[in-house]
Amino acid sequence: MKPAPFEYYAPTTVEEALSHLAEHGDDAKVLAGGQSLIPMMNFRLVQPSVLVDLNNIPELSYIRPVENGGLRLGAMTRHHQVEIDALVAERAPLLHETMPKIAYSQIRSRGTFGGSVSHADPSAELASVSVALGGSFRLQSQNGERWVPANEFFVGLFTTVLEPGELLVEAALPSMPVRSGWSLMEVARRPHDFALVGVAAVVSLDENNLCQQAQMVFLSAGDVPMVAHKAIESLTGQAPSPKVIQAAAEIAASEDIDPGSDIHATAEFRRHLANVLARRALEQAFKRAGDNQ
Amino acid sequence: MQNLFDLAVTVNGTRYEHAVEPRTLLSDFLRHDLGLTGTHVGCEHGVCGACTVLLDGSPVRSCLMFAVQTHGHEVTTIEGLGTIDHLSPIQEAFQEAHGVQCGFCTPGILTTVKSFLEQNANPSEAEIREAISGNLCRCTGYQHIVDAVQLAAEKMRA
After folding, report:
1. What share of chain B is helix, strand, coil (3-state, %, to 5)?
2. Which of B44, B52, B66 sits opposite A106 (nearest CB)?
3. Cβ <8 Å between A38 and B66
4. Quick check: B5 and A8 in contact, CB under 8 A?
5. pLDDT more than 70, % of chain A
6. Are residues B71 and B93 in the same domain?
7. CATH 3.30.390.50 spans which residues of chain A?
């Protein structure tokens, strides 16, 4: 239960970090909060030969408002900072409500936004919430930078579009449309443990109280955050009646997700949970949208 | 041994300077290099909470940090809470309310609770259970632990 030896670099600027990553390429691993990487190193599931620690780079830790009503978060912003931030509560209530559900206080003291999404664990709340909010990530390397929408960032189990030498430096979360509602629901064996299944939902209503936009993204229901495309299509333009919501939940659980079986739950049980959670999440989200005049 | 790092860290108010391997976990540094064996090592992968210490006042799992990462920071372990002759109010409360059975999880719970009660002086039972949710007690002595935290909160308010 001890990590294998590695070369350790603790740069103090992004530029310096990128130069270490460029020099060491595939051999280098980025150390953000370390709350997923260090357990894997303790088990020697991963044995990076070089660690580039971002914890001494203050320029990567911030929460800033943007003019259109959205938010920018530095990659090294810790979960606890996001959890207690008044701006997040005001501008991204879904994110605000999600934060206390992520692991435990000790993990939230260290864990970071950028680290969580870069790790691309399909059970991570922040991955699915970023997709549900229509977020995007700024990736930087010595060759320049690019913005990647969250729904194109995750490409497989623990796999993202990040290239060797590239670093996720910032997340942008747009504001939600007026008359929006949101919800995050999950089921775990023990509170705060990895969710067996979870779902993030964001909906908005038009002037006739019909569903204008909907987004629903499942966690622990496939290799990546699973967007419920068919269910969303069934909701758009409809009055969110209990029947319409129930039907959308059933479509999501049966057609939009691809859960696996493991010692914690069978795929069938995960689909059952997805159905129930989707219904409850949509009910809550539409209710909030209706109350949000 | 390979590339050693010159670490300077303040632990329980005392400044220490030690050469450490980058791969040395904070939990092992505290126990093996500094002899502060009050920090207990349970699962070593961030599940049990026994190794919780305070880093600049915030609770962290010392098995999920490298010692080098504490360079220039302040760490508080269970040894920093009180002494046998002068127990902290939290320690007194755990003794009086029998919040300790085998004692293995206790250091991690006390450090977690110290940070929690500093932020929430008058917590409800639900908030206490939430606060200690990242600490496993395999004696399952949670009821007495919750009672002890309530008693500690009373003592600290007094």
Report:
1. 40, 15, 45
2. B52
3. yes
4. yes
5. 99
6. no
7. 180-291
Contacts with A41 from chain B: Cβ below 8 Å: 23
Q: Which residues of A touch B117 (CB under 8 A)?
A: none
Each residue of B99-109: pLDDT tens digit?
A: 999 999 999 99
DSSP string, B19-33: EE-TT-BHHHIIIII
CB A240 within 8 A of CB A218: no
Q: What is the pLDDT of residues A241-275, one digit of tens each?
A: 999 999 999 999 999 999 999 999 999 999 999 99
Q: In chain B, count H helices and then E strands.
A: 5, 5
Chain B: residues touching A (Cβ < 8 Å): 2-3, 5, 21-23, 25, 28, 44-46, 49, 52, 55, 58-61, 63-66, 68-69, 71, 112, 115-116, 130-131, 133-134
Q: Which A residues in the span 180-199 are in contact with B, Cβ-Cβ below 8 Å?
A: 190-192
Q: Are residues A105 and B64, on separate chains, in Cβ contact within 8 Å?
A: no
CB atoms within 10 A of CB B41: 19
Q: Which residue has the tokens 């409800």?
A: B124
Helix (H) or strand (E) holding B63: none
How far CA A157 is from CA of A120, A220, A224, A225, in Å, comes to: 7, 11, 6, 10
Question: Does 3.30.390.50 match the CATH number of domain A180-291?
Answer: yes
Topology given in CATH for the domain delimited by A58-173: 3.30.465
In this structure, what DSSP letter does residue B70 have?
G
Give the tens place of pLDDT for each residue, A78-137: 999 999 999 999 999 999 999 999 999 999 999 999 999 999 999 999 999 999 999 999
Return d(Cα A49, Cα A288) in angstroms, integer.
49
